[in-house]
Amino acid sequence: MNPAPHRRRSANRIHPAVYVALGGMVFFSVFPLYWMFVVATTDSATAYSLPPHVLPGGNFFHLASLVFEIVPFVQALMNSLVVATSIGVGQAFLCALAGFAFAKLSFRGRNTLFLIVVLTMTVPTQLSVVPQYLIMSRLNWVDTLQALIVPGLVSAFGIFWMRQHIGNVVNDELMNAARVDGATTWQIFWRIAFPVVRPAALILGLFGFVNAWNDFLWPFIVLKSPERYTVQIAIKALQNNRDIDLGLAMSGSFLATLPVLVLFVFVGRRLVQGIMEGAFKG
Residue 215 in contact with residue 208, Cβ under 8 Å? Predict the structure, then answer.
């Protein structure tokens, strides 16, 4: 009797402790979202009660209606959708374009410029707020959505990631053959490089979308009018200076989280596939 198949099955068997650890991580990841929903369906007292309430109440629709009455929440959702979508699409395309230039084109100062791009990742975001606001003021973009969109269209991390990915997966021989056939640099990027790296660009765009949707600091500084609020600023407007109605705030937070949850339901599998493809190809 050959014991090799039995040893192989034993080696491939996952230890129960792994399932316990994974279950614990899932619980600690999902519980804050569930607790937010519990508070959003009851009131502020639920957050402080002992023993804590673990079952949702029936007050969600009342609190949600108050959210829409107090602030222009629908307009805030639309503003966030416009800003986040523009930034997601812009990062997916422009970072891929810049990454292609750094990975496959030869020009003077390429390595120096790329080093500068990488070094900007070490600068804290807070340090750029003042000069960025001065630029927006000179352009008369304060209290406009383009003040949120334009600075976020390109990210240093996105350029770095796409440069590494394009350098690994785009074939130089295929590019040289296209040049021999008379293809321009733009045609090579659009017809050869970009289709190959589209999954990685999609992942980058999704990350850009989520980061823009959740951003609070820069919109809070640059936006003044309620009709231009993004969803995070609208949630802040639900609170007054003296006390915080946690039930109302959690209702607004849950409503703001729903679009992102729906997005991940539809693209979650594609997100994992893109990350895995990038990992194996890299």
Answer: no
The gap from C-alpha 242 to its chain's centroid, in whole angstroms, comes to 32
Spatial neighbors of 199 by CB under 8 A, at least 6 apart, are 270, 273, 274, 277, 278
In whole angstroms, what is the distance from residue 227 CA to residue 234 CA? 10
Q: What distance in Å separates the CA atoms of residue 75 and residue 229, rounded to the nearest whole number?
A: 8
Rounded-to-integer distance, Cα 174 and Cα 102, Å: 18
Q: What is the pLDDT of residues 43-94, one digit of tens each?
A: 777 777 777 777 888 888 888 898 999 889 999 999 999 999 999 999 999 9
Amino acid at position 29, single letter: S
Give the DSSP letter of residue 280: H
* CA 55 – CA 70 distance, rounded (Å): 27
160 token code pair: 């770095």
What is the DSSP secondary-structure string of 178-247?
HHHTT--HHHHIIIIIHHHHHHHHHHHHHHHHHHHHH--HHHHHH--SGGG--HHHHHHHTS-SS---HH
N-term to C-term CA, the chain:
42
Q: Is 142 left (phi over 0), alpha (psi -120 to 50) or beta?
A: beta
Q: Which candidate, 138, 131, 151, 238, places its Cα nearest to that of 229?
A: 238
Q: Strand, coil or helix: what is 146? A: helix
Element (H, E) at 104: helix 73-104
How crowded is residue 281: how many other Cβ atoms within 10 Å of its Cβ? Answer: 13
- Nearest CA among 25, 34, 40, 28 for reference residue 54: 34
Under the banding of pLDDT at 50, 70 and 90, the label for residue 279 is: very low
